[in-house]
Here is the input.
Amino acid sequence: MRILGIDPGIGRCGWGIIEAKGNKQIAISYGCIETDKDLPLDTRLEQLFDQVTKIIKTEKPESFAIEDLFFNTNAKTAMVVGQARGVILLAAVKAKLPIGIYTPLQVKMAVTGYGRADKNQMGQMIKVLLKLDKIPKLDDTADALAVAITHAFSNKFEAQNKKSETMSKYK
Here is the structure.
């Protein structure tokens, strides 16, 4: 399954495409969409929507995963990032992609097994799990790949549970 993972943001929006086959995940492509802080918000949101739509059309993911928002101090930042997340989700909905939403804790637990993992620990695990030569440069990009990996693990777990439920019906 080809998965597009997104770490939403207005200034920087990380994205990563992985191919999940059984227990393996392979990085296909990844990067970061950046918008100019001097542009009006509506223009930046339009750029995000257009870029995510372009990635979806080019990379043809079968599933979409995005990190849920977590802010504990700055409400203004949370509102703007929430708007960015909304237009990103709209791009996935318009492409009719199934969507998975994961909290930062879920992502850290899935990738490192530790809910308080720092950026360096996350980057190292992304490098190992995807067999990359180096950690992706921007944290946003590494985070997006982590979200995609979390979705791959989640889908595998759900598929195993469905198989177990089906098998138990026939016992």
Remarks:
- Strands lie at 2-7, 12-21, 24-34, 63-67, 99-102.
- The mean pLDDT is 91.
- The radius of gyration is 16 Å.
